[in-house]
Amino acid sequence: MGRFCITGSSDGLGARTANKLISQGHTVILHARNAQRAEDARKACPGAETVLVADLSSIEETKQLAKEASELGPYEAVIHNAGVYTGMENVPGKSGLPTLFTVNTLAPYILTALMGPGAQKRLVFVSSDLHAGGRPRLGDSEDIKKSGYGDSKLHNVILAKAFARVWQTKAYSVHPGWVPTKMGGANATGDMQLAVDTFVWVATGGQTDGKGENEDERWTPGGYFTALREEEPSKTANDQSVQDGLLAALESISGVKVSV
């Protein structure tokens, strides 16, 4: 059985994914943004090993989270599930940058870059089909900070492809569907259980119910998944110059470099 680390796992898809992994006998490290949410996470996932606390709108707290998570690894997979939705584009986070950009794009970059290629067998970035309408926003150093939700979800797909290529590692992105979480809302029509099953399937390399051979040797490096199948994402994400441009922009903003 493996060890897994899931950001944003105090409720919703993160907590449900954690509980399914725990039910299969895996060890799970949770993450929450503050002490109250950490308590929520413990109640939602009583079988988890521990909960790490960090506000991902803070660059310094995200760096500390990378250190603490690394000390508890290595992992079968790190699942970058934490995210915020439309409405947070212009709300400053703890580091003064827009919360949506910092949490959805910058934080998973910082965590991945600082934890390094040896921290996990697989990287899983949570995306959305709304990435198809997103833009990389790499025109200048300020434009990317103005990213909307769709832009940030495109960044997540690009990050999976970039790390898969640069590190020659297993990195993927997942679209869970429009599911009834706090972010998705009560009127969402997607299948929550299918979304959880897809997260677990990708994080375990294609295993079903914790059993069977890994399928990910046959998957596209940096592949994009939804509903237990691989799909083709926006062509923009496959552009290596865009991938390199995003890594360079995030390095410039955070001061964190990707080791090669």
UniProtKB/TrEMBL annotation:
Could you tell me the keywords of this UniProt record? Answer: Oxidoreductase
Please give the superkingdom of this protein's source.
Eukaryota
Pfam families in the record:
adh_short (PF00106)
Q: Which SUPFAM superfamilies match?
A: NAD(P)-binding Rossmann-fold domains (SSF51735)
Would I find Nuclease among this entry's keywords? no
Q: Which family does it belong to?
A: Belongs to the short-chain dehydrogenases/reductases (SDR) family.
The molecule here is called Oxidoreductase
